[in-house]
Amino acid sequence: MGTSGTLPDEPAHPGHGHHHPAAPERGRGWRSLRAAGGALVVAGVLVGGAAALVVHPVYTTTAESFASLTRSSAGQSDPFGGSQFVLQRMQSYAQLATSRDVLGGVVTQMGLHETADELADAVSVTAPPDTVVLRIAVRDRDPERAASIADAVAARQAEVVEAMEAVGGPAGTAPVRITPVDQADVPDRVAAVPRVARFAVVGGVVGLVLAGCLALVRRSLRRG
To answer: How much is the pTM?
Structure first.
C-alpha cells in the first residue's frame, strides 16, 4: 500500500504557463500602423500646401461689349428687323473675337511674346442667348496682364467688326457697332490664398487614403 511521496505529473492544460507573444506584437503592429498613417496624412498636407505655393495661380477676368445698330441703320423703317439682324450675328461676333485678325492685333499692340494662336488658348468669348452682349474672358498668371488683354481684345474686336461690316461700302457705313462698355477688373491676388488651404486638404485626404490602403495590405498579409 505504499504510496509514493510524489504526485503524478498532471497533464499540462493549454493556455497555462505559456507566453502569448501575439497580443503584444499585435499592439505594436497597430501602433506602428497608426504612426505610419499619421505620417502619411501630415506628409500629404505638407506636400499639398507646398504644391499650392509652387504652382502659380491663374487669374480670370472679363470685359464686356455691347452690339448695336449704327445711327444710319437705326433709322430703318423696321427697327425689329434691325434688332434681329444684330442678334443673329452675335455668335459670329463671339467667334471673331478669337480670330487671328483680332488677337494678332492685340499681340502687336501689347508687344506680347506669344502668337495669336497661343493667346487664343487663354481667351474665351461668349454671347448669352437673346442678348447683344459679348463677354470676353481672359486667363493669365498675372492679374494686371489678364485685365489689359481683355480690354485690348474688346477694343480690337470693335475695330475688326466695323471694318468687316463696312466691306463694299464707304468707311463708317457698317450697320453694326461694337462698343466696349465694361472694362475688365484686375483680379484680387488675395483671392488665390485659399488655394493653399484647399491643396493642403486634398493632400491630407490623399494621405488618409494611402494610410487606409496600408492598413488593408497589412491586414491581408497577416491573414495570409
So the answer is: 0.62
Please give the order of strands across the beta sheet that includes 59-69. 123-126, 133-140, 59-69, 176-182
Q: Residue 173's closest CA among 70, 93, 24, 97?
A: 70
The tens digit of pLDDT for each residue in 51-100 reads 555 566 789 999 999 998 876 555 554 555 567 888 999 999 999 999 99
Q: 62 by DSSP, 3-state: which? A: strand
**C-alpha cell recorded at residue 32:** 506602428
Contacts of 61 (CB under 8 A, 6+ apart): 137, 138, 143, 146, 147, 150, 184, 185, 186, 187
Distance CA 162, CA 65 (A): 13
CA 202 – CA 48 distance, rounded (Å): 7
Q: Contact at 8 Å (CB) between 132 and 64?
A: no
- SS3 of residue 134 by DSSP: strand
